[in-house]
Design goal:
The complex is a heterotrimer.
Chain A: H1 9-22, H2 25-62, H3 78-88, H4 99-117, H5 134-142, H6 145-155, H7 159-190, H8 195-201, H9 207-210, H10 212-229, H11 241-244, H12 254-278, H13 292-299, H14 303-322, H15 330-358
Helix pairs in contact in A: 1-2, 2-3, 2-12, 3-12, 4-5, 4-6, 4-12, 6-7, 7-10, 7-15, 10-12, 10-15, 12-14
Chain B: H1 2-29, E1 56-58, E2 66-67, H2 74-78, E3 84-92, E4 98-108, H3 117-121, E5 128-130, E6 144-146, E7 153-154
Parallel strand pairs in B: 2-7
Antiparallel strand pairs in B: 1-5, 3-4, 4-6
Chain C: H1 2-6, E1 17-21, E2 33-39, E3 42-49, H2 57-61, H3 66-73, H4 81-96, H5 102-130, H6 134-155, E4 164-165, E5 168-169, H7 177-200, H8 203-209, H9 217-223, H10 227-231, H11 239-242, H12 263-285, E6 306-314, E7 317-325, E8 333-337, H13 339-344, H14 347-351, E9 354-355, H15 356-365, H16 370-374
Antiparallel strand pairs in C: 1-2, 2-3, 3-9, 4-5, 6-7, 7-8
Classes of the chains: A mainly alpha, B alpha+beta, C alpha+beta.
Amino acid sequence: MAFNIYDFTSFTQSIDEALYEWLPPFWALIVEMTIIGLVFLIGYAIIGLFLVYAERKVCAFMQNRVGPNRVGPYGIFQTIADFIKLLMKELVYIKNSDKLLFNIAPFIVIIASFMAIAAIPFAKGLHAIDFDIGIMYVIAVTSLGVVGVLLAGWSSNNKYSLIGAMRSGAQIISYELSVGLSLLTIIVLAGTMQFSEVVELQSSGWFIFKGHIPACIAFVIFLIASTAETNRGPFDLAEAESELTAGFHTEYSGIKFAFFFLAEYMNMFIVASIAATVFLGGWMPFHIGSWEGFNYVMDFIPPLFWYFGKTAFIIWLMMWFKWTFPRLRIDQLLNLEWKYLLPINLVNILIMAFIVLMGWHF
Amino acid sequence: MNSFYTYFADIFRGLKSLLIGMSVTGRYFFSPGQIVTQQYPENRKTLKMFDRFKGDLMMPHDTNNQHRCTGCGICETNCPNGSIEVISDRIELPDGKKKRIIDKHIYHLSMCTFCNLCVKTCPSDALAWDQTFEHAVFDRSKLTKILNKPGSSIIKDIE
Amino acid sequence: MKEIINLPVRSIEEEEYHINMGPQHPSTHGVLRLVVTLQGETVMKVQPHCGYIHRGIEKMCEKDTYQQIIHLTDRMDYLSAHINNHAVCLLVEGALEVEVPERVKYIRTIVDELNRIASHQLWWCSFGMDLGGLTCFFYGLRDREHILDIFEESFGSRLLHSYYAPGGLMQDIHPNFQKRTKDFIKYFRKKIKDYDNILSGNVIFENRSQGIGVMSKEEAINYGVCGPSGRASGWECDIRKKYPYAMYDKVDFREVLSDKGDTYARYMVRIDEMRESMKIIEQLIDNIPEGDYSVKMKPIIKLPPGEYYQRVESARGELGIYCISDGNKTPVRMKFRTPSFVNLGVLDKLSRNMKIADLVAIGASLDLVIPDIDR
C-alpha cells in the first residue's frame, strides 16, 4: 500500500532495538520513557498553547472581532506572552485552606490529561503505548481529572469554588456514562478496544459511515457528552463565570491557574482525538469504496495531517457550540443526560448490536 | 404513544433551534468582512472624530493671537462642577474708562463632565469644543489648562 | 419600633449558608451586593444591599440650578440618559407653563426611542452573557455602536449627553441625523432577526427562562414593578400611553404586554419593545417640522413655589421626579423615583426556591442598573 512510506513502525522499532543493544534492559526502558515523556511534554505545551490561541481566534471571528493581533504576526505569540505572564504572577495562598490538597489539585488535573494522551495513536507506529483495552483505559483516565476539580473546590475554602466543584462532580459522574456507552456502540461494531486495530479496521471506511445511523447518533452523543466532560460551554457549570465568578478555580492564581487552564484545553484535544480516532478513522485517509485512483491520491496525504485535521475539525465544532449557546442549569444538565442521552444511547447500542448481528454494516 | 411522540418532537425541535443558533455564529465565522473592530493606534491618522464631539474645552484664537473672551465669568457660574476659574484684571483704557480683561481662564479637565453649559451660555462665543480625546497623562496637574494663550488679547469689537 | 422587631425574620437554618454575590460579581453588573442564603444550590433568600455607588445626586440637585441638574440626571440611569433629562425638562417646562416648539417634541421623542433601543440592546447582550452565551454580548454591542454614533454626531458624546435643556435642546440636530437614523432602522431590522435566532428560539434559553421567576399581575402592582418587567406580567403601566408626553399621543404604537410574567416574557417584551420603538421613530423621522430648537428661557430659571411631580417612561420603567421649590433658582428637594430601585425589591420574592443560576437570570431580566438604584 502507498502509505507504507508514512509507516513509523520501523522507525520507532529501530530506536527501540538500538537502545536495547547499547544499554542494559532496565536503563534502556528508562531512557525510552524519558524520551517519550519529553516529547509528550513539549507536544503538550505546544498543543495547549496553540489551542488557547485558536479558541480566542475562533470566538473572535464568530463575534465579529479580530481577536489577538498584537504579539507577533496575527498575534500568534499572544498565548506565549500570556503564559510568561502567568508564570511570573504571585501564587496567592489562601487562609484556612487545605494546603496540601490545594497544591495537589492542579497536578491531578494535569496528570490525568497527560496519562490519557499516551494511548492515542497519532499515526501508524506513532503510539506511546498500545493497550488492548485502549478505549477503556482512556475513559478511565480522563475521568480522573474530576478528582482534581473536586479537591480544588473543596480545599479552596470558598463557597463559590465548592459549588462549582460539586456541580462538576455530578456532571462528570453522569456524563461519563454517555461517553462510555457511545464509545461502546462503536466497540460493538469494531469488536476490539485496541486503538491501533480500531484504526486499521477503518481503512475501508470510517466507522461513522460504516455504522449507518446508530454510529451517527453515537457520534453526536459523544460530542455532547464529551463537551460536558471537559467542562466546556454550554456545560461549563463548574466554571460558570456569570454565576460562580470562576467556579472551582476562583482562588487559584499564577501557574496553578495556568495548569487548570491548560488541562481544560488538553482535555478538549484528547476528547477530540478520541472522537477522530473512533468515529472518523484516526490517521486513516479518507477512502471511498472502489475509487482506486481517488484512494491512491488520498493515501499520499500524510497520516499525521489526517489525524490533526480531523481533531482540529472536532475541536472547532466544540468551540462553535461553546460560543453559540447559553449555559444550562444544573438540573437541566442532569435531565439531558438521564432522560435523553442515556435512554437513546441504550437503544442505540441495541440497534447497533442488531445491525452487527445481521451483518448490515458495510 | 402521545408522550412518546412529544418526547421525540421535543428532541428534534430542540436540535433544530440549536442548529439555527449555530448557523448565525457560523455565518459570521465565515464572513470576516463583517468584522467591526477598529485598529486604534494604527488608524490614528485616519480616525476623525465628529465635529461636535466634546473632547476638550478650548478658546479659539485667531491668527493675531486674539480671542473673544471678555472675562465676564458666566461660564464659571454656570459650571456645575467648578471646573472653570476665570481670573480677570482691570485695566485702564486710554480714555480713562476701566475695563475688565481676562488674565487667566483656567480649565480643570479632571473635573469636567462635558455638560456643554459653558459653551452654550457664553455670551461672546469665546469657548468651543476641541475634538481631541487622548487625555491620559501621568501627572494630574497636566489636566489643568490655561485656555487663553500667553500674550493673547481680546478682539476689538467684543464688548 | 416594636413591630419592626416582631417582623418574622427568616433566620439561617441547618444546612444553609450565605454567599455574597457582589459588590464585585460578574452578573450584578455593577456594585450591587446580594447576600444570598442558599441550601445546596437552592436560593432560600436574597437580601440586596445598596449604597455602594451612592453619590448623593438628590442632595447635589439642591445646590444646582435647573440647567445644571440635567448633567446629574444623566448619571443616574446612564443607559437612558436622554429620558432622564427629558423628565427634568418636562418638570421645569410644566412648572413654568412653557410650551416647547413642535420640532423639539419630535426630536425628543425620536432621541428617547433611540435611547430606549440602545438601552435594550445593552440589556440584551448582558442578559445573554449572564446566561452564558458570550457571543450575544458582542452582537448587542456591535449594533448599539450605530446608535452611539448617531448620538455622537449630533450631541457630541456617546453615553452622557446632557442634550436636553429646559425649554428645548442644547443645539439643533446634525444635518445627517435623519439619514443616519433611517439607515440604522434599516440595518437593525435585519440584525434583530439574529437576536431571535441566537437566543429567543434557542431550546436551552427557553428552558432557562420559561416558568422562571413568575410574577403575577397583582404582585407586579403590589411591588410597583414598572416598565417592561411589569408589562410582562400584564400590567398596563406604560407612561407613554397613560400620561402621554412629547409626541407619544400622536404616534401609533402598541403597548407590549404579556400575561406569562416569567423571565421569558420579560425578555420577549423588551425584544418587542425595540420593534415598537423603531416603529415610532419611523413615523416621526421624516416629518420633523422646521422651527426653533429651543424657546428663549431666562438665564436663571426660578420655579414658582410649590410641589411638582413629573413622570416619564424610561427604558426600565417609570421615572418620577418630585420637586419642591421655594421660588429660588435651586430646588429645595428633588426626589427621584427610579425604576431600578423599585424593581430590585421584587428580586427576593421571585428568586426564592429557585436555583442560583435562576437568580442570575431573574436579576438580568429585571434589567437593573446599579447607579439608578443608589443614585
